[in-house]
Amino acid sequence: QVQLVESGGGLVQPGGSLRLSCAASGSIFSINAMYWYRQAPGKQRDLVARISSGGSTLYADSVKGRFTISRDDAKKTVYLQMNSLKAEDTAVYYCNTVDMGNNYWGQGTQVTVSS
């Protein structure tokens, strides 16, 4: 069983920064790829960023150059550094991984970008 707990969301002005964290616990291994998704009101949940076990990263076009995903396997934590935030980044952000064929999600953390 894997548990994922996100933190770090909040209200920020356009152009500001936030760093999200996702702490994993349970029988999770450092071989897992980790993902950040987001879901805005009335919209589908979309992939924001992915980091492989080896540290390779992938980003949605909408966040390239502004967001950075990273991981600390010793702490079983994945991060999402978000810079130059825009109103359209407003969403609930979710951490995700697949372990032993099971899909795990955190409870989400709200990010609101507004002046």
Overview features:
mainly beta; 4-stranded antiparallel beta sheet; 0% helix
Give a concise summary.
This protein has 115 residues and is mainly beta.
- What would you call the shape? globular
- Structural class determined from secondary elements: mainly beta
Q: Can you give the helix content as a percent range?
A: under 10%
Distance between the termini: 40 Å
Summarize model confidence as the mean pLDDT: 94
Radius of gyration: 13 Å
**β-strand number:** 11
What does this 3D model show about the protein?
This protein is an all-beta fold and 115 residues long. The protein contains no helices and eleven strands. The strands form two sheets. Strands 2, 4, 5, 6, 9, 10 and 11 form a seven-stranded mixed sheet that branches. Strands 1-3-8-7 form a four-stranded antiparallel sheet, with no helix packed on it.
Topology:
Blueprint: E1 2-7, E2 10-12, E3 18-26, E4 34-39, E5 45-51, E6 57-59, E7 67-72, E8 77-82, E9 91-99, E10 102-105, E11 109-113
Parallel strand pairs: 2-11
Antiparallel strand pairs: 1-3, 3-8, 4-5, 4-9, 5-6, 7-8, 9-10, 9-11
